[in-house]
TrEMBL record:
Family that this chain belongs to: Belongs to the iron-sulfur cluster assembly SufBD family.
PANTHER family per UniProt: PROTEIN ABCI7, CHLOROPLASTIC (PTHR43575:SF1)
Boundaries of every SUF system FeS cluster assembly SufBD core domain copy: 135-363
Organism this protein belongs to: Streptomyces mesophilus
SUPFAM superfamilies, per the entry: Stabilizer of iron transporter SufD
Name of the protein this chain belongs to: Fe-S cluster assembly protein SufD
Domain of life, source organism: Bacteria
Amino acid sequence: MAEAQNIPAGATAGGAVAVAAESTVATRMSAPPSFDVADFPVPHGREEEWRFTPLERLKGLHDGTAKADGAVKAQVDAPEGVTVESVTRDDERVGKAGTPVDRIAAQAYSSFEKATVITVPKESVLTEPVRVLLHGEGGTTFGHTVFDIGAFAEAVIVVDHTGDGVRAANVDFLIGDGAKVTFVSVQDWDDTAVHCSQHNAKLGRDATFKSVVVTFGGDLVRLHPRVEYTGPGGDAELLGLYFTDAGQHQEHRLLVDHNVPNCKSNVVYKGALQGEQAHAVWIGDVLIEAAAEGTDTYEMNRNLVLTDGARVDSVPNLEIETGEIVGAGHASATGRFDDEQLFYLMARGIPQIEARRLVVRGFFAELVQQIGVKDIEERLIAKIEEELEASV
């Protein structure tokens, strides 16, 4: 287990962070960000950003052989006052939140026909979530969605993925000054689906963004949440929950770019794995640029391995280019059931199977309770129970 590191202003923790003149996050990429797929070489699996990903299971998304021959049934349920538009890629809002950082994201950008822009007007306080339901009906599809959140607006957004198919997409968040946004992304695909997506969030001054990524389904899921700030006072919380079954590959690669002063971020991802060749990958990059004095950040990844044959790769990366920060730290831990917890429960008359279930429920409960959408929380609890039936 990597112990948490809390670093006061002007200090470093031995081996935990590096003060660098230029970003090692950028140098780990095989090519700089670009909207043009031709700017990215076809990956061969030895690149840093691809070394954990089974390229042969991407169904051609990575090498240009995947063609848009599928269908996704899309439904948007938006409260009164929220507008939904279908636009072309030359709309000024498309791509404004972030640039593709790998070949698949660039392929998605160059291949979609129309982007969906969902706008929450400034100072609007939504009492019901904006829900985007995407149901794959087979084949390969590409997509781009922009959520344009006006200044001082408050919104909860749920994007729910079900069905089958091969999907590559970009999801953008333009979050105005003082706005508060909760984003819940659910990956509940069929077992044969492939899903790759880059999430870009650009936060205005004093804006708050909470992302909750929940991944259960799919043969291969590879998600790329990214956050940057446009003014001081921004606060980003990135939460994630995944349950990886036999043969599944679930990969979450995050970047929080602290590029302006006096912003906060907190990253907590938790996963459980069971079955032969269940593989979870978590890469957590936090960059504190030279200009980002007063930053306060922390990231943590915890994994619970329920059976033999499962594999976890957990890589937290913290890079600091200024010593004038409030605090920065990271932690990563992977292990099996806590024998002391099981003994405590069994000593009080709880059967071993039920005790194991209680431990897993407790492991995930903290994150589930922070979603804030009751029907989603209930559905995820039921899904966890379903997964536990298979493992215990």
